[in-house]
Write a structure and sequence with these properties.
Length: 153
Amino acid sequence: MSRAFVKNLDDTVEDLPDRPISSHLNLVTPEGLARIEAEVARLHQEHGAAHAANDRTALARAARDLRYWTARRASAQLAPAPSDRSEVHFGATVTIVRDDGRRQTFRIVGEDEADPAHGTVSHVSPLARALFGKQVGDRVEVARSQAEIVEIA
């Protein structure tokens, strides 16, 4: 069979597309910046190990991820913890009560830090954007329903 008709998987791995980088401002909390630094360090080690093992697949993945996290570190803007707790800002922890009675607490963090299942939401998420600038007692629309802000910490 002609070599032209054989797909070499090793060649396709080397051409992994870069991970998309958000066009939004890369605000981070101190914890988020520490995670980025840890990820860059881990990926440097992973890249070195893949290079030493001549593992082209692992090398390509590590290189791609290292490019992403290095770019995120370079664009990171450390946002100090909000001192004004009278309204919602980046880094604030906000508790809302939905119309159906559910009480939820979220901390507004950077995009790479966000994990809604663990109570953190990205500052560019619809929820965070609806909350910014609001105060305790204000109502916001959240996922097609209303919610009241009951605490800002």
